[in-house]
Amino acid sequence: MTGIVPLRRNMRFQMVWIGGAASRLGSEFTRLAMPLLVLALTGSPGLAGVVAGARMVALLLIQLPAGVWVDRWDRRRTLMIAQSFQAAVSALLAVLILTGQVQIWHFVTLAVLDALCAAFIEPVRDTAIRGIVPASQLHSAYAQEESRTHAAGLIGPPLGGLLYTLGRAVPFLAETVTLVAAALFYALAKVPRRPANQSQTSAREDGEERRPIRRGVHREAAEAITWLWRRRGLREVTAAMMVLNLLGGAFLIPLIVLVGERGGGALTTGTVLAALGIGGLAGALLSGHISRLLPPGILLLAVLTIFGAALAATALPWGAWWPMVPLVFITLSTPSLNVVLNVVIARMVPDKMLGRMGAVLSMGGMALKPFGPVLGGTLAAALGGAAALVVLGGLLGATAAAAALSRELRRFTGEIAPA
């Protein structure tokens, strides 16, 4: 292993990581500000859920073809264009809010455009890590990625809540700045344009871009889906993740309603949500130990069980700040699962299929997720925040019990073999 640069000195990876951290932080600012603003304008939790759901639907629809195109196109150029356009979308929304012209259809339209950008950005980032990090350092790289996500989740919501109290447009202006910064760091990282060993390409002289032989989008997508279907255990894990993402994506609006019902304002709500970041950071640090103790299948069952119990516990009548405690346990359990599954995919999937395969797995995991905010908003409107959270927690517990019946899922170790 001599000659391998330590991860902390791998400047290309660190630039990608910092760019992702900046982008994620901006998203956390508006993750809270968006539903707060929609609620302030309409008074409807259901409409707040529709806005979030529209973004997820758009991401779901474009993700698979985007993954195919990422494998075909110049990945560096794709990343820069998508990131720059995402910053422009955020800036436009901020201008609409500042001028007092924003309407619900603006939120929906711009959320869809933001999702289209994200559908290209995330696959390129995933393939970039595979291209600039040695296989022996992948676990550490993905653990650092996970820590970035939860660090942003720790400081983003309370800071977003504080920015919102300064002015409704301020969180969106701050997000624009972070997205521009992300684009600059990605430019410094010089993300690989193509896999080094990509097949079916014709190289030009003098290092010019390689161009893949064109094949149908459907055929290339089907190739990735077939790869997944033939892997025992992974397809069952994907099915369970679909339900986890549906129910896990439904709790934000009921939680905001719950804190509001107990007298908490925007800053209180943001601070409560920061508990997700506290648990996530601790979980990312412990991911190496936990992943050695539990194989991925059993780890998934544990995450489902803990998530459900913690979500139901947020409804206990102990004040607006109480949900911070169970929320810590939700994200304390999830980083290890994310890291383990990311490493398995990065090691097993051929470079030329990484964009497509990442899109297929993400699409599988997200197939039901767009309905999460709508479900959560509807339950909160009908039952109130506390009862909605209890219902969601119970459904997660039932999912864990049903998943435990799958022999393939229980025995899934990450050693992916053809069916």
How many helices? The count is: 16
What fraction of residues sit in β-strands? Answer: under 5%
- The oligomerization state is single chain
Radius of gyration: 21 Å
Query: Shape from CA axes?
Result: globular
- Main β-sheet description: 2 strands, antiparallel
- What is the N-to-C order of secondary-structure elements (H for helix, E for strand)? HHHHHHEEHHHHHHHHHH
The count of DSSP E runs of length 2 or more, i.e. the number of strands, is 2
Mean pLDDT: 79
Structural class: mainly alpha
The share of residues in helices is over 70%
Strand order of the largest sheet: 1-2
Q: Which stretches of 5+ consecutive residues score pLDDT under 50? A: 196-214
End-to-end Cα distance, whole Å, is: 34 Å
Account of the protein in words:
It is a single chain. With 419 residues, the chain is mainly alpha-helical. Helices cover 76% and strands 1% of the residues. The protein has 16 helices and two strands. Strands 1-2 form a two-stranded antiparallel sheet. A hairpin with an 8-residue loop joins strand 1 (201-202) and strand 2. The radius of gyration is 21 Å and the shape is globular.
